[in-house]
Fold this protein.
Amino acid sequence: MNTVGTPIVRLSSVAKRFGEHAVLDGLDWQILPGQIVGLLGRNGAGKSTLLECMLGLRELDRGSVTLFGEDVAALSEAARARIGYVPQKTDLFDWLTPDQLLDYFKAMYPRWNDAKVEGLLGRWGFGARLRRTPVKRLSGGEQQRLAIIRALAHDPDLLVLDEPVSALDPLGRRDFLRELVDGVIERGTTVVFSTHILSDLERVAFDLAFLKEGRIVLQGQADALLENEKVSLEDLFIRTTRDAASEVAP
Amino acid sequence: MMPLAQYRALLRVTTVQRDGGRHFLYGKPVLGVFAVLTATFSVGFTHDWTDFAHVARVLLGVAASWLALAWTMLFLPASMTMNSAAHARLLPQQRRGLLHLAAAGWALVTCAMAVAAGDWRFGLVVGMLLQAFALVFGARPLALVLVVAAGNSTWLAPMLLPPAVVAAFAGPAGQAGATLAVLALGTLSLRWLYPAGGDAHLALSARQATMLAHAGAHDVAEGPAPHKHAGPVALRVYGAALRRAGRRRDAARLLMLGLGPVAHWSAWIGGAFSIVLIGVCARLALWWTDAEPVRALVNGVGGLGMASMVLAVAFSTAQFGQQLRRHAGEEALLRLTPLAGDVKLLNRRLAGQLLRAGLLNWALLTAAIVAATYVFDAGDEAVLREFALCCLAGQVALTGLLGDYAEKGGWSLALAFQAAVVAALDGAASVALGWWNAGTPWPWMIALALATGALQVLYSRRRMLAAPVAFPAGRMA
């Protein structure tokens, strides 16, 4: 896996507050081309905010973000065409059918992998009838699968997944992870993957990053981290992200 | 009965503590408007300043108007949200307290209005209106019929009801009967507004949350904005527009179509058709019979009825802001697409398309209203009046159409209040200019509304272009 070269994502001294609460506090982070990074943190740690700031969807209070070497606030068309994103909350245009939705987004991209879209739709249970059903009548899992297909359809070089499997059943998660490994990671796509399902992360993420108190407090290759600490990923997660205040004295 | 302290606590939570006490109803602009209203009514209706009873009634009327707003916009949404399914089941005393407070507030406003007007019937009409608005909040949209009936009862009743019934209603027995009917309806309304838990409660509270969000009470109802459904014809027109924009890769159109079919001009086809149909039906009725009651009814519908249709023009753009907030995740994706353009280009494209859609809605509805008025054979004066009112309503629709959507754009109660004040000022100035020139106010109203609307658009467009990108709306701060 090629993970050398200039960082594809670079965040420098990024700060973001919501009122009195500092969500990101001078965060520095960089992701190299081809890296598969699992982003971990407790509920409310700011994972979604970090990913939104990374993509330029939220204004920063301080700091800078570059994607593909460009300032995220002024990304070129070419750079935007290289990004795929599955937000935590999939609120698809629910009056459209899956076919209409995909056609809509196809018009917004210069490159669109029709064969991949057709393949995924077929493998993930979107038959002819379902493809003509308005999105609002699809189940939560079907909507999430559609959101993932849409994010993969233009063969992005950077794929940002914010808890993409939260609404999927075990079978749906298995299909998604298989697609992620076979169809995305194998072609050298850089992936940033936030999830609470640690077993999924263990299957795909080669690198782990732990977000705590507004900073990346621990980052490294998953195997090396687990080997050094001699613990399971769950124990490492608890140990790394636990608040000092929540420690219980023996 | 609950202890008085608990009533006080419930009242504080649902009124003065809402928005940290910073609700726009407590703001200086609103209080200033009410002060101006007090002064205007005092000067206009009081000829003898020593007639303290008269002055007191004017003051009571203005105060009751503010109370009516506070009851409808502050207390009701907050108290309905407090009465969640779990609270209703586990805290029955709280539910009873909210019921008592709602009834007391309603009775206070109704009685104060009746005393201020010196006519119990006026109080009853106000009481019915308040109930109807409350029911609309309570996800009973059919109550809109009641709003229209109560609002137009003064001219509709003499036309539709036999003279004997109208005369009976004016007497003490009739008024007592009407009072009992309004009280019965009020009791039923309270049970709908504050359900007592269970599955029905859960189903209703979801609809209530969307209605409250629709009315701008986002702070107490964090549900998604409601989605008005477009009819089959509108959906077909929207689908065709979507395919055309996709084929042409027209980024601006695609961004606007991303707001859904309810933000497309075709969503108003049914409304415009209905308005014209009313005109045609009235014309046919007159052709069939020239009876005096029919003529009176047609005149009433052609005058006040058509004038009330301009409300549709005023609210024709209210959906845009709601739609922008409904699909923040998708808008984030749209913003990341290559075709969407950079921050300034995206905002410029969206501003242009919002303005285009707003003007299309205005043109469609105005054409329907003016055509219907013409079909009524109401005369040139009436056609000019309806066009002028449509222009004024169009000016209202343009308020808040463009703006800083990244922070807070679109329709809100505060903005509606501002639009109403500006429209009232324009209307008053038109009447004054018409009177000054010994003519009708309508040409002045057209000129003032167009000029004010253009200024609003210029200012708000500049503000929108300077703002952070509008996609995703409301999530940038």
Remarks:
- Chain B has two domains: 4-214, 232-466.
- The CA atoms of residues 151 and 374 of chain B lie 25 Å apart.
- Chain B has 21 helices and no strands.
